[in-house]
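Summary of Year 1 activities. Much of the first year was spent building the evaluation harness for sequence design. The harness presents a backbone, in tokenized form, and records the residue chosen at every position. We chose the following record to illustrate the format because it has been used consistently in internal testing since the harness was completed.
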């Protein structure tokens, strides 16, 4: 069965069960559990067996508690970047020793909570380091603590997602004058700094660039350990950012290629001197979810067809506002869930329901002719779509269903119910 046929099977059963309904549920998201498990299995197998590795899922990619608990059952931990994400991960049963707290703006309260729990923490800057020292002096902590380095190896294809550029807001800029020495001395003066962290960027960063950043991390840790005269830094947190293939149906992310690129570009990482933490998000889930929406109306404008659907900026925020950086594949299905015939196509815009003209998820795209009552599927939306809602027009946040047996007789379970409208408090 092709993946398109698999999606058609999911839609057909969701329609029969009333989960997708023209009037009551015109916009729904799905996550294919079997594919998630297969991909995570592949991740776990890709890294060397003789080195302890914690794969901490980047919760920003999908903060829904049932998703986090399923990933925990599959053997992952969690990387959190706010109090809210920390709460979600704990609710999902991920224990503090499998958590990592990152964020460039940790408040005193967030620092105290993470250090009180004993969760690992990556300090972003020298001011934060001073706060952490104060808390440790006041109350101690079991947490393993590190500092985030910006190796300043350069940006990838998407500037907004590149965190190792010369002026990035993240981490300590290692190549700025005097910074490397200042940081080495901070480590030597703080024997409780037992980790180091970098994250080169998210999507758009080629593997050799990621490996170059990780290599800088290893070189820094080697220098600290050699000057300390013992293995002070024990753990290297190499971040996430493995780019996802948004063009094909391959469900397996390129974890093998990623490990091969690190073996070549940062060979000391796998020498056995360090434990490893990863923080993948998009590459874990993106390919295994899709959003389905009804076509409410169609029209012809200036000689081009437009399908007005229920999926726009409120669910595909990045795609709508940065269409070149985040293009999505769109598929068409009829009202029974069957794929629209591929021979009858037209150049069309696929629009969302939001009240601004740029609310388009596809522009001038050759697609099967979409009609009123058809369905569109926005593919590869398992990561960062559920976590990026946009509340414009008070549109409802769609329900998300997990699917077992997607290829045969799909069974659906609710991951998130529809959130109808956030009431604005009366003045
Ligand atoms: C510190 C950190 N780790 C991990 C990630 C996850 O990146 P990705 O979802 O591309 O794997 C991000 C993404 O922004 C991040 O900022």
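For this record, the design step produced the sequence shown next.
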């Amino acid at each position: 069965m092709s993946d398109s046929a698999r999606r058609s099977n999911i839609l057909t059963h969701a329609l029969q069960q009333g989960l997708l309904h023209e009037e009551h549920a015109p916009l729904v998201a799905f996550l294919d559990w079997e594919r998630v498990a297969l991909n995570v299995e592949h991740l776990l197998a890709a890294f060397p067996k003789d080195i302890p590795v914690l794969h901490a899922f980047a919760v920003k990619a999908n903060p829904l508690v049932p998703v986090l608990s399923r990933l925990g059952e599959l053997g992952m931990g969690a990387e959190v970047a706010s109090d809210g994400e920390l709460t979600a991960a704990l609710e999902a049963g991920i224990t503090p020793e499998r958590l990592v707290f990152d964020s460039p703006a940790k408040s005193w309260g967030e620092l105290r909570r993470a250090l009180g729990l004993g969760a690992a923490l990556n300090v972003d800057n020298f001011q934060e380091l001073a706060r952490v020292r104060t808390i440790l002096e006041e109350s101690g902590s079991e947490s393993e603590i590190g500092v985030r380095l910006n190796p300043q190896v350069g940006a990838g294809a998407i500037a907004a997602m590149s965190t190792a550029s010369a002026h990035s807001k993240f981490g300590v800029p290692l190549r700025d004058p005097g910074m490397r020495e200042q940081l080495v001395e901070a480590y030597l003066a703080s024997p409780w700094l037992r980790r180091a962290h970098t994250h080169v960027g998210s999507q758009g960063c080629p593997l050799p660039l990621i490996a170059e950043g990780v290599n800088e991390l290893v070189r820094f840790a080697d220098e600290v350990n050699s000057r300390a005269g013992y293995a002070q830094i024990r753990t290297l947190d190499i971040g996430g950012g493995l780019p996802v293939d948004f063009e094909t149906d391959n469900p397996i992310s390129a974890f093998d290629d990623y490990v091969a690129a690190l073996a070549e570009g940062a060979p000391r990482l796998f020498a056995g001197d360090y434990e490893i933490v990863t923080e993948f998000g998009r590459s874990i889930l993106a390919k295994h979810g899709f959003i389905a929406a009804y076509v409410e109306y169609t029209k012809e404008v200036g000689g081009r067809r437009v399908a007005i659907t229920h999926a726009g900026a409120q669910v595909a925020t990045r795609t709508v506002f940065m269409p070149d950086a985040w293009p999505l594949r769109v598929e068409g299905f009829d009202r029974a869930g069957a794929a629209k015939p591929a021979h009858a196509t037209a150049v069309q815009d696929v629009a969302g329901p939001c009240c601004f003209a740029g609310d388009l998820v596809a522009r001038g795209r050759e697609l099967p002719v979409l009609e009123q009552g058809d369905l569109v599927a926005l593919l590869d939306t398992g990561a960062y779509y559920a976590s990026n809602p946009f509340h414009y027009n008070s549109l409802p946040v769609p329900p998300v269903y997990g699917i077992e047996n997607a290829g045969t007789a799909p069974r659906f379970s609710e991951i998130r119910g529809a959130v109808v409208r956030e009431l604005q408090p009366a003045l």
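The first helix runs from residue 3 to 16. Quantitative recovery figures across the full test set are reported in Table 2.
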